[in-house]
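Archive record:
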Amino acid sequence: MECRRASRGNARLEHAEGPSAWAEGPSVDAVVDLIHLCSENSTTVVSRPVVDMHEHNHDLMQPIDALPAPRRWTRLSLADRARVVERYETGEASTSLAAELGVAKSTILAILREANVVVRRQSLTSQQVSEAAALYESGCSLSQIAAKTMLKQDTIRPALKRAGVQLRPPTGG
């Protein structure tokens, strides 16, 4: 398989056994090789997941509607950063600030830590506490609840205590 430039600069991939070898379409590896060989060592916008989506699609020029949108990077100005700190210190939640500014919650938390602001513990919503309590009362352990709810045991235990759930003695496993 090799990549050659045609007269108008178009890349062409040729299979060692000739064009009939691709009667069922090129393999994913062949497409990856094409991208690599014809990229002239430049960054390409075609990623492995995009190539994988085309694996069973023999018409590689057919558009795919499921392509992810390119990630938009939002850089907050110094004034925005100062407002984040001010609003957080007045009691606004980091998640609402992140949603409003179009950034990740981790970005807000990094700004707060950079400004030496003590970050409040994130409490569970009443729905999360109810779900955890129901799971615990049905016999699930704190570890199992943590795995099912994607929360930490150290967050679940005090929330259940505050909700009045009688905790079983630890099994010590």
User: Anything to note?
Assistant: The chain is about 45% helix and 5% strand. The mean pLDDT is 75. Residues 53 and 65 are 11 Å apart (CA to CA). Residues 78-89 form the longest helix (12 residues).
